[in-house]
Amino acid sequence: MKTYFFYSLLDVTVDTLKQLSIRCVLLDIDNTIRRIGASVIESKFADWIDSVKSAGINVILCSNNFKRNVAPIAKSVNCDFISFCLKPSPLGFLRAYFRLSAKHNEIVVIGDQFFTDILGSKLLLLKSFLVEPISLTHEAATVKFRRKLTSAFTNKIKSRDNPYIKGS
Are 38 and 72 in contact (CB under 8 A)? Predict the structure, then answer.
């Protein structure tokens, strides 16, 4: 399956997830649901997570960050989490997969970075959605460098027709 691009996580609807038979979302944290440097996620992203969970779809937060940083965020939205994922290594996604009762084709990875989130999902042949980062302010130099290196891949994903966005 192709990786699809969405301008925001909020553009990914429960209907889209159901059309794809998704039973679990593996969701990146930094710059996907929380601004870099913020201690909490914005309520609109918490509401999105609640709506997905209300539809019977599991949400597991997957982050390269440490447990002490990830656990409070996961607790605030009542989600399971995998910290220290080591993305793009598939190890973190594999840890999430073994916690689930979902099949391989019922999982989607959603994140803002091609190098970590999308590449990691592709190594396990998982469905993936690339979203625009919430903000590029305060990103580490290494993240900016990776974004520059992978911009050709990201631009190709962005240029594809997306049947899940109106007008695409």
Answer: no
- For residue 153, tell me if it sits in a domain: yes
- Contact (Cβ atoms closer than 8 angstroms) between residue 92 and residue 107: no
**Which domain, by its residues, includes 72?**
4-159
Place of tokens 């190098």: 115
pLDDT tens digits, 84-140: 999 999 999 999 998 887 899 999 999 999 999 999 999 999 999 999 999 878 878
> What phi and psi values does residue 59 have, to the nearest 5 degrees?
-125, 125
Question: CATH code at 26?
Answer: 3.40.50.1000
Here the tokens at position 4 are: 């699809």
Output the CA–CA distances (angstroms, integers) from residue 154 to 50, 137, 159, in the order listed.
28, 19, 9
Residue 164 lies in a domain: no
Q: Is residue 57 part of a domain?
A: yes
Question: Is residue 166 domain-resident?
Answer: no
The tally of domains found in the chain comes to: 1
The pLDDT tens digits of the residues spanning 31-86 come to: 999 998 888 999 999 999 999 999 999 999 999 999 999 999 999 999 999 999 99
